[in-house]
Specification:
Layout: H1 5-15, H2 19-23, E1 45-47, E2 55-59, H3 69-78, H4 80-84, E3 87-91, H5 99-102, E4 107-110, H6 120-131, E5 135-139, H7 150-156, E6 160-162, E7 168-174, E8 188-193, E9 197-198, E10 209-215, E11 233-239, E12 244-248, H8 260-273
Parallel strand pairs: 2-3, 2-4, 4-5, 5-12
Antiparallel strand pairs: 1-3, 6-9, 7-8, 7-10, 10-11, 11-12
């Protein structure tokens, strides 16, 4: 994955002076502070949509890999206030995972995140929110996020293993299944991506429904043969712990977040996990 200094600087700037709040999140002995003393996460972007439409929290925290696509994903989702009527807020502050703020949203989007940052109290609040029906969508390195947190990995449906060293062209195919997210969309999507491979086969997860696969026959000759897996799941849904989940490994290439089919797929996924579709 490409690491970019300018993305890091912009994300730090968006956090402002929230470092003081981070220090207050734990007590002197390192344990979690009581809920009433925990800091609220800093929101670096907000926009209001229409009543009754999904309320989306876009989470963009990265502390492992840096993606140029991170800010593109954030902006594409914020733009859905105008294009879809969603209410959207964005944050790269892990303290946004608290019961008070999560209660304001129907969906959390892990928008090209990576690494770990959510504390124990935040994990407990997020798990409770998902089990109460909270919806989750994830892009690309969302499966390389919080990899030491079993609930998160199981909820997302797969865990990142590796990818080729560069972006490569390839074709995605919609699976011949009936689903509100993909119904009526074009049968294929040609994109340039950094094609993900997972530690285990997503399609083997009970209840996981694959919506899109990578057609490995369309990959260039330079694609590492050891990374070809045959049936190559690339987008799916899962309802495992009460809340709905949609994940796609698309998202390393910033250009995908300006592709009309990807934007439509994303908007429908938000509506579906928010139980509006």
């Amino acid at each position: 994955m490409r690491k970019t200094i300018w993305t890091f600087v912009l994300l730090l700037a968006a956090c402002g002076d929230n470092g003081a709040a981070r220090d207050a999140a734990t007590t002197d002995d390192g344990s979690s502070a009581p809920p009433e003393e925990r800091p609220l996460g800093y929101l670096d972007g907000t926009c209001s949509g229409q009543p009754g439409q999904p309320r989306v929290l876009v989470y963009t925290y990265e502390n492992q890999w840096r993606h140029m696509s991170n800010l593109h994903a954030r902006q594409a989702l914020l733009d859905m206030c105008a294009t879809r009527g969603f209410t959207v807020a964005s944050s790269n502050d892990p303290h946004v995972f608290n019961a008070t703020q999560l209660a304001q949203f129907d969906v959390v989007a892990f928008a090209v995140t990576s690494g770990s940052g959510i504390d124990a109290a935040g994990k407990a609040d997020f798990e409770a929110w998902v089990r109460a029906g909270g919806g989750v969508i994830g892009f690309e390195a969302a499966t390389a996020t919080e990899q030491g947190w079993e609930f998160y990995v199981q909820n997302m449906g797969a865990e990142f293993a590796t990818h080729p060293p560069t972006l490569m062209p390839g074709t995605l195919r919609l699976e011949p299944v009936s689903h509100p997210i993909t119904e009526g969309l074009p049968a294929s999507l040609e994109v340039i991506e950094q094609w993900y491979v997972f530690k285990a086969r997503p399609e083997s997860v009970p209840g996981l429904q694959v919506l899109m696969t990578l057609d490995e026959s369309t990959l260039p000759a330079s694609f590492p043969p050891e990374l070809k897996v045959g049936y190559h799941a690339y987008a799916w849904t899962l309802e495992r712990f009460g809340g709905r989940v949609f994940y796609t490994a698309l998202g390393d290439n910033p250009e995908v977040f300006s592709h009309s089919m990807v934007l439509e797929l994303t908007a429908r996924a938000i509506e579906w996990v928010a139980r509006r579709r």
